[in-house]
Design brief:
Blueprint (H helix, E strand, L loop, with lengths): L1 E5 L2 H12 L4 E7 L2 E7 L5 E8 L5 E4 L3 E6 H8 L7 E7 L2 E8 L2 E8 L17 E6 H12 L4 E6 L3 E7 L4 E7 L5 E6 L3 E6 H8 L7 E6 L5 E7 L2 E7 L7
Antiparallel strand pairs: 1-5, 1-7, 2-3, 2-6, 3-4, 4-18, 7-8, 8-9, 10-14, 10-16, 11-12, 11-15, 12-13, 16-17, 17-18
Helix pairs in contact: 1-2, 3-4
Length: 248
């Protein structure tokens, strides 16, 4: 059995939404160190890895390691009902997960069914990136908004000179460039030039939960999955997205 408490329920919702942006259901694993989740999206081209350490909770109790299948979309809808003065408590009661809000002498409790889910993914893709770029979430998300005006796919390019987004549409093209030493780039390491093309909608879903003022890391390698990393309300998010391989 498990039980954990968070002082601000709305902050936990922000973290859970980072999962919901990619999958509806998944298996959350809990142990003495914290909670984790690894899951592929239904199309099997993207993966989310979520982790939240016990230090993120004001109370955290896990008797033994446990796996719980949940509908995270429903959990997010419940968490959206949290009020600013309410504390959140989540615990298991037989085949239900209890989601309890409390403030003073007031309490509300929702019951979510525990789902039978296939075994969770144990391994992340092993890709040694040639380029690592760190920038603010707002910077990358704004570039994706520009790209959305042009096409459904976006090419991410990185060289010793900087980072470039290249988008080709039916009637319009876009080239968005940022030099390596520009104020938009927090840090950039380049071992070799990298270029890969990805579906824009997935990049948008993956980065949607990243706070505008928080760092976002892109790990790139030519025609290899991109690895996207950022933190949300004490949780660490790592995503992988397969590229579209373009023939010459």
């Amino acid at each position: 059995m498990f039980r954990f408490v968070i002082e601000d329920a709305r902050k936990f919702k922000h973290a859970i939404d980072a999962i919901v942006n990619l999958i509806d259901e998944g298996t959350m694993e809990m142990d003495a160190e914290g909670i984790t989740l690894k899951a592929m999206d239904p199309s099997q081209i993207s993966m989310v890895c979520f982790s939240m350490p016990k230090s993120a909770f004001v109370e955290y109790e896990v008797a033994n390691p446990e796996r719980v299948g949940l509908n995270f979309e429903n959990l997010s809808k419940i968490l959206a009902r949290a009020r600013s003065d309410e504390k959140l408590e989540i615990y298991r009661e037989e085949n239900k997960v209890m989601v309890k809000f409390s403030s003073g002498k007031k309490r509300r409790a929702f019951k979510l069914p525990v789902l039978e889910m296939p075994a969770s993914i144990s391994r992340e893709p092993k890709v040694e990136p040639d380029v690592v770029i760190k920038m603010l979430g707002a910077n990358f998300k704004n570039q994706l908004k520009d790209a959305a005006l042009v096409s459904t796919h976006v090419s991410l390019n990185a060289t010793e000179d900087g980072f470039k987004i290249d988008v080709k549409g039916d009637s319009t093209d876009l080239v968005s460039e940022q030099e390596k030493d520009s104020e938009e780039i927090i840090e950039m390491t380049v071992k070799a030039e990298s270029k890969a093309t990805f579906p824009l909608q997935y990049l948008d879903d993956i980065t949607k939960a990243c706070p505008d003022a928080s760092p976002l890391a892109l790990n790139l390698k030519t025609n290899a999955p991109v690895k996207v990393e950022y933190d949300v309300e004490g949780a660490k998010l790592v995503y992988y997205l397969a590229p579209r391989i373009e023939s010459d």
